[in-house]
Design brief:
Layout (H helix, E strand, L loop, with lengths): L3 H14 L1 H4 L8 H16 L22 E4 L2 E4 L3 H7 L9 H25 L1 H12 L2 H7 L5 H18 L6 H17 L4 H14 L4 H26 L20 H10 L7 H13 L6 H14 L8 H16 L9 H4 L2 H4 L1 H16 L1 H6 L2 H21 L4 H19 L5 E4 L22 H17 L3 E6 L9 H7 L3 E10 L2 E9 L3
Helix pairs in contact: 1-5, 3-4, 5-6, 5-7, 5-8, 6-18, 7-20, 8-9, 8-10, 9-10, 9-11, 10-11, 10-15, 14-18, 15-18
Length: 521
C-alpha cells in the first residue's frame, strides 16, 4: 500500500502531463519543437544529427531548412544543444509520440525529486503540500505537455540537487558525490543556462565541506568535462567550440560578426542594459500573476529560512537566493526575439522553472516553522494552497495561453502534416508558413532569413521555377492568413504558372487550400 499510493499519484501526474498526447496526438506549436523532433528522429533512424536535404544544393541560400534547425557547411544541424536530441532519439521506439511522452515522464521526475528534497528537510506533510502545489502549477503542466528541453534539464538538475543534498552529510563516498555532480552537469548539457544554479549549488556544498579537497576537485573536474563536451560537440556542428546554432547560419542575428560577437549580442548584451519597466512588467506577468496566493508566505519563508538554519546543516538560502536573482534578472530583463510581446510572453514561464521551485521551497519553510505552525489553521493553509492550485489551473485551462487553445493549435498543425503526407512522395511544398507543422514532405522555409518580404517573394518564385524545371511536383499549401506573408497564390499566376486546386480541406475550422503548381502547356 505504501508503494501503491505514490505510484498512483505518479501515474495521474503522467496522464496530466501527457494530456495533449493522449487526447489526440501531440505536435509542433513552436519551431523549436519541430527542430528537436527532426534532429532526434535523424539520430534514431540514421545515427547522425546531420540532416541531408539535396534540394538545398541547387540554391545559394538553403530554402528547405526545417524550422528550429540551421544550415552549416551544406548540412542541416540543430540550433541548440545536440545532447537534447540524443536524449530524445531512443524514445522513437514508442512511435511518433515517443519524445512527447519522454518529456512528460521527466516532468513527473521533477515533482518526485522536489517532494523528497522538501520532505528531507520538513517532513512528509510539507513536502507533499509544496510538491503538489508545484506539480499542479501552470508552468509544470503546460511545459510537460510540450516538446521543449526545459523540463528534462530541470529533472536532472532536481535529481542532482536531491542527491548532492543527501550526500553532503555523513561523509558520503566520492562515487555518490560524483554521481550527483554528473546529474547537475547533464542539466546544463541540455540547457546551458542551468550552469548557473548547478554551479552555485555545487560551489556551496563544496565550500561548506572545504576540508574535503577531493570533492572540490571532483566538482571542478565534472563541470570542466561537461563544458568540454559542449565545446567538442560544437566543432563538427558549427565549426568552432564557442559557436552555436544561434550564432551561425540563417539563425545568426549578426551574420557579419564572429560567432563570439554574435553570441554576446544575442545572449549577454541585455545583462548590461537593465530595463526597469520591462522587468517590472515581466515580474507581474510571470511571477506575481502566477504565484500571487503564496507570495506573502514566500517572502516570510525567506526570512524564516535565513534565521532558522542550524549551523550543522548546510543552508541553501544563499545559493537559492543568488540563483533566483541571477536567473530572474537574466530572463525578466530579456530582449530576446518576440519576448516583449504578449503572444510569446508565455515562453518566460519555461525559463523560470528553477525560480518557481526555489520560491515554493521557501514557502515550505514558513509552513513548517514550529512556532507559526501552532497558530496556523489547517483550514487556512488548505485554502491558500487550494487557491493557488485553482488559480493556476484556471489560467491553464481557460487563460489566454491555456492548454486547451494550445492543444487545438497543435492538433491543427498535425492535421496539416497528415494532409501533406498524402501528396505524392516526390512532392515539394511551397507556402512558407506551413513549414512549422509539416515534416512529411520537403517544405519551403524562409522565415529565418532576415530579409524583406519582397525579397522573399522573389526568392520563392525563383525556387518554384527551378523545382519545376528539375522535374519536381510542386504543391502550394495556403492558409487564410498567408496573404500577409508571401501570398504565393497571387504571385505565382502573375509569372504565368498554373494553379490547379487539388483539395480544399477544413481542419479545425480553418480552410486549407492545396494547389498543384504547373507550367503552361
Amino acid at each position: 500500500m505504501k508503494i501503491l499510493f505514490p505510484l498512483l499519484v505518479a501515474l495521474l501526474l503522467f496522464v496530466l502531463y501527457s494530456f495533449v498526447s493522449i487526447t489526440g496526438g501531440n505536435w509542433f506549436l513552436n519551431p523549436e519543437e519541430h527542430g528537436d523532433y527532426v534532429i532526434a528522429r535523424s539520430i534514431f533512424e540514421k545515427g547522425t544529427p546531420f540532416v541531408e536535404q539535396p534540394l538545398n544544393d541547387a540554391f545559394s541560400q538553403p530554402p528547405f531548412v526545417p524550422p528550429g534547425t540551421t544550415y552549416v557547411a551544406g548540412k542541416i544541424v540543430p540550433v541548440h544543444s545536440v545532447f537534447t536530441h540524443y536524449l530524445y532519439a531512443p524514445s522513437f521506439v514508442l512511435g511518433e509520440q515517443g519524445p512527447f511522452f519522454l518529456v512528460s515522464l521527466h516532468g513527473v521526475a521533477v515533482v518526485i525529486a522536489f517532494f523528497y528534497f522538501v520532505k528531507d528537510r520538513w517532513g512528509f506533510a510539507i513536502g507533499a503540500a509544496t510538491a503538489l502545489t508545484f506539480a499542479l502549477s501552470y508552468p509544470m503542466v503546460y511545459w510537460s505537455n510540450m516538446l521543449f528541453n526545459n523540463i528534462p534539464a530541470f529533472a536532472y538538475f532536481m535529481s542532482g540537487l536531491l542527491l548532492i543534498s543527501r550526500t553532503s552529510h555523513g561523509g558520503a563516498s566520492k562515487k555518490n558525490w560524483l554521481l550527483s555532480l554528473a546529474l547537475l552537469s547533464v542539466s546544463f548539457l541540455l540547457r546551458y543556462e542551468f550552469i548557473v544554479p548547478a554551479f552555485l549549488v555545487a560551489l556551496h556544498f563544496t565550500y561548506r565541506r572545504r576540508g574535503e579537497r577531493s570533492k572540490v576537485a571532483l566538482s571542478v573536474a565534472s563541470f570542466a568535462v561537461a563544458l568540454s563536451a559542449i565545446a567538442a560537440s560544437n566543432i563538427p556542428l558549427y565549426g568552432g567550440p564557442l559557436a552555436t546554432g544561434y550564432t551561425v547560419g540563417p539563425w545568426s542575428w549578426t551574420p557579419e560578426a564572429s560567432p563570439v560577437q554574435s553570441l554576446f549580442e544575442r545572449t549577454f548584451r541585455h545583462l548590461i542594459e537593465p530595463n526597469g519597466s520591462l522587468i517590472l512588467s515581466n515580474v507581474y506577468k510571470h511571477l506575481i500573476r502566477l504565484y500571487f496566493a503564496p507570495l506573502p508566505l514566500i517572502l516570510a519563508g525567506i526570512v524564516v529560512f535565513l534565521k532558522g538554519e542550524k549551523p550543522n546543516r548546510p543552508s541553501l538560502a544563499i545559493p537559492f537566493l543568488l540563483t533566483t536573482a541571477l536567473l530572474g534578472y537574466f530572463v525578466l530583463n530579456a530582449h530576446f526575439h518576440s519576448f516583449d510581446t504578449e503572444r510569446f510572453g508565455v515562453s518566460y514561464t519555461r525559463l523560470l522553472l528553477p525560480v518557481y521551485m526555489m520560491l515554493l521551497f521557501f514557502m515550505g519553510s514558513i509552513l513548517s516553522h514550529r512556532r507559526l505552525r501552532k497558530t496556523w489553521s489547517p483550514v487556512l493553509v488548505f485554502l491558500v494552497l487550494a487557491g493557488l492550485v485553482s488559480s493556476n489551473l484556471n489560467y491553464l485551462v481557460w487563460g489566454e495561453f491555456g492548454l486547451s487553445d494550445t492543444m487545438e493549435e497543435k492538433r491543427f498543425w498535425k492535421s496539416v502534416d497528415e494532409v501533406a503526407g498524402e501528396l505524392p512522395i516526390s512532392s515539394v511544398i511551397m507556402g512558407n508558413l506551413v513549414s512549422k507543422g509539416v515534416i512529411s514532405r520537403p517544405t519551403l522555409n524562409l522565415d529565418d532569413y532576415r530579409i524583406g518580404n519582397q525579397t522573399k517573394q522573389q526568392f520563392a518564385l525563383e525556387i518554384t521555377m527551378k523545382l519545376l524545371d528539375d522535374g519536381y511536383r510542386v504543391f502550394l499549401m495556403e492558409l487564410p492568413w498567408h496573404e500577409t506573408n508571401l501570398d504565393l497564390s497571387t504571385l505565382l499566376p502573375r509569372i504565368g504558372l498554373n494553379l490547379t486546386v487539388v483539395e480544399q480541406v477544413t481542419l479545425r475550422r480553418t480552410l486549407v487550400y492545396i494547389y498543384e503548381v504547373t507550367e503552361p502547356g
